[in-house]
Amino acid sequence: MNGSIPFALCGAVLVGIGLYGVMAHDHLLRRLIAFNVTGSGVFLLFGSLSALSSGGATGAVPQALIITGIVVAVASTAFVLALVVRLKEEDVDAPAPGAFEGSSEHDDHAP
Amino acid sequence: MAPAFSALTLFDVVLCVLIIGVALCSSSVRDLFAATVLLIIYGVFVAIAWVRLGAVDVALAEAAIGAGLTGVLLIGAVARLKITESPAAAVSRWQFAAKVIPASLGLLIASGLAYLVLTVEWRETLQAPVLANLPDTGVLNPVTAVLLNYRAYDTLLETSVLFAALIASWCTTHDDLWGERAGLRQHTRRAGILATFGRFLPPIGLIVGIHIFWAGADKWGGAFQAGTIFAAVWILAIMAGVIDAPNATGRSIRSFAVAGPMFFTFVALTGVLAQSFLIIPVMVAKPLTLAIEACLTLSIAATLMLLVLGAPRRSA
After folding, report:
1. pLDDT tens per residue across span B227-257
2. For chain A, which terminal residue's Cβ has fewer other Cβ atoms within 10 angstroms, N or C?
3. What is the pTM of this model?
4. Residue B8 lies inside a defined structural domain of this protein
């Protein structure tokens, strides 16, 4: 058995867990956490498949791509958090019925 | 032949089970703060997995960015949302379907990927050409060579993405608060534990960061890992009240944030005069790569620090 197969399978399961969370959770922060789990699952799958094909360590090109991916993931996480915090503040300023459902559309400033 | 099931294989399997277990707990635990803390633990376990896969550069990035920085960002957001938490809990009318359909979709995708892992054979890798051309790049770490030479284009765009994320989150500022300092003012007890840590840890962090930056050329590390450590030191010093949070409209902090992408773009454009866009000449590969990395490290540190502090808010 190749040593990186457990990690590749682990990555596959993490993608599933993350996608479930993104779809099933109501709270936006929970979805964001699930989004991060999906991301690292994809990275783990990708990196361990590279290790699988080279029969040992993860290659340099996949490693560089994954580092790029991690940085882009944290950048988007920071931006989404800024949006979530601002959205919550808007809801407090002008409380709408059923505010902060996450999936519902906000139309607080309708004429 | 090595034994089919060694102690290390057992370690790997246990590690994978732990990673999946922590991910499930983080997804299912009721308390939002607990979910965030579990995500940090998850990130540390994933970093160990990267060490086992021989990807130490990724492990450093995952520990510093994936576990550390994402965790700090989420904890900050949880704390901010708690202040304005509305009592009404979201109750779904389609609770059963709302869980079962995503669960079966997730299961389907996971098993599809697992099937691919177990059946498809991958043979080709780019490792041989990467190593063959390594002398031309001026660095000995193949990952740094890919990031700053072979695929410098990706890294240039990546730093721009980071910068764009900062501008985007600044755009969420209330109009009347623009010009205030980023984040809340920190009040710490003199000689309290945070004040002590705020003076004790930054020098150590700076030395570790400089080492990771310098070692990144030839061994493990690099601009992103070192930049994240510097950002953490910066944030700690602000949290402990040693230095004040920067003002988003300040000129010096903005130049810090833009220096790396600017210098990188400048190098890319001067390459046009010589041969083509984004060419790093072999003759000056090492000093030029290190100069780009140094500028990028500063910019990454400043940008990540500003992203964690978030949009300017009232200095209460």
Report:
1. 999 999 998 888 887 787 888 788 888 888 8
2. C
3. 0.86
4. no
Query: Residue B83 above 70 pLDDT?
Result: no
Domain encompassing residue B234: 131-316
- What tokens appear for B22 in the block? 């922590």
Whole-number Å distance between alpha carbons of A102 and A99 = 8
Across the interface, of A26, A47, A82, the residue whose CB is closest to B90 is A26
Domain annotation for chain A: domains and CATH numbers: 5-93 (1.10.287.3510)
What ipTM was assigned to the predicted interfaces of this complex? Answer: 0.87
Q: How far is CA B263 from the centre of its chain?
A: 21
Chain B, window 181-210: residues with a beta carbon less than 8 angstroms from a chain A beta carbon: none
φ, ψ of residue B124 to 5 degrees: the values are -80, 135
Asked if residue B23 belongs to a domain, the reply is no
Record: contact B117-A45, CB cut-off 8 A: yes
Half-sphere exposure of B313 (CA within 13 A, CB side): 16
Total domains in chain B come to 1
Of B305, A34, A24, B230, the C-alpha closest to A42 is A34
Model confidence at A94, pLDDT cuts 50, 70, 90, reads: low
Shortest Cα–Cα distance, A12 to chain B (Å): 5
Which phi and psi (to 5°) does residue B311 adopt?
-65, 150
Question: A91 and B86: CB-CB below 8 Å?
Answer: yes
Q: Is the CB of B20 less than 8 angstroms away from the CB of A10?
A: yes
Q: With CB atoms and an 8 Å threshold, state whether A77 touches B78.
A: no
Token code pair at residue A19: 């996608």
Residue B59 lies inside a defined structural domain of this protein: no
Query: What is the average pLDDT score of chain B?
Result: 83
Residue B138 pLDDT greater than 90, yes or no: no
Q: Shortest CA distance to B63 belongs to which of B169, B208, B162?
A: B208
How does B159-176 read in b/e, with b if 16+ C-beta sit within 10 Å? beebbebbebbbebbeee
Q: List the structure tokens of B130.
A: 């990467």
Location of structure tokens 């550390």: B68
Locus of tokens 């089970």: B17
Q: Could you tell me if residue B191 is left (phi over 0), alpha (psi between -120 and 50 degrees) or otherwise beta?
A: left
CA B175 to chain centre: 29
Residue B57 lies in a domain: no
Angle among Cα B259, B249, B300 to the nearest 5 degrees reads 30
Helix (H) or strand (E) holding A100: none
